[in-house]
Automatic annotation (TrEMBL):
UniProt KW Chaperone keyword: no
Transmembrane region(s): 49-73, 85-107, 113-131, 143-163, 169-188
Full protein name: KinB signaling pathway activation protein
Species, as recorded: Gracilibacillus halotolerans
Superkingdom of origin: Bacteria
Coiled-coil annotated residue ranges, if any: none
Keyword field: Membrane, Transmembrane, Transmembrane helix
UniProt-listed GO biological process terms: positive regulation of sporulation resulting in formation of a cellular spore
SMART domains, per database record: KbaA (SM01251)
First and last residue of the signal peptide: none
Length: 197
């Protein structure tokens, strides 16, 4: 990949992370915005905008680190495990989805298991859709690595948000992570094709 494409990927993903977190904050943190609307305090609202955009930039960088780490891990997995690597990735996906439900539920007292079940099902369905799109745009062998990336790497990146009290920051974090990971995954082959042309 040309350095120009790496820079383009970095900044476009950064922009996506910042904007998506800002938009998500309007829904997740609407009470904070309403606090400064009556009377309208433009300085505080501007401060909130900058805070959530900055937070989104951090989430975007986490996403990009996870993406490039996965590219390295995938190459190492192919080298060491060869034909077993796809099956190992599927096994890890199953373990991560189980972990998202069981272990997260077990550490939270007086909580229903259903939010964790829904989060796990949503992450799986979304990841299956993105993996199918990736496979259609490239080749069938890309399906399992794309599924692994969208489920496992997104989950690992999301762990700090899951550890916070309340669900606000978990929501603020998962939306930009999913969007940034999806964007990077689906644009990568287009950027590398330009190199080959």
């Amino acid at each position: 990949m040309k350095s120009r494409n790496v820079v383009r990927l970095f900044f476009s993903t950064l922009l996506l992370g910042g904007l998506s977190t800002l938009v998500t904050s309007f829904f997740v943190k609407s009470d904070v915005y309403l606090e400064f609307m009556k009377p309208f305090d433009w300085f505080e609202v501007l401060g909130l905008f900058l805070f959530f955009i900055g937070l989104g930039l951090v989430f975007s960088i986490i996403s990009q680190m996870g993406f490039f780490a996965y590219l390295t891990v995938n190459q190492l997995g192919l080298s060491f495990f060869r034909t077993f690597w796809p099956w190992l990735q599927v096994a890890v996906v199953v373990v991560v989805l189980f972990d998202l439900v069981y272990f997260r539920y077990s550490i939270v007292e007086n909580s229903s298991v259903m939010p964790y079940v829904f989060a796990s099902i949503f992450l799986l369905i979304y990841s299956l859709i993105i993996a199918r799109i990736k496979a259609n745009q490239t080749n069938k062998k890309a399906f399992i690595p794309a599924l692994f990336f969208m489920v496992v790497v997104t989950f690992i990146e999301w762990v700090p948000g899951l550890r916070t009290s309340g669900g606000d920051y978990a929501w603020l974090m998962i939306v930009p992570l999913l969007l940034c990971n999806t964007y990077q995954l689906l644009i990568l082959h287009r950027l590398t094709e330009k190199k080959q042309a």
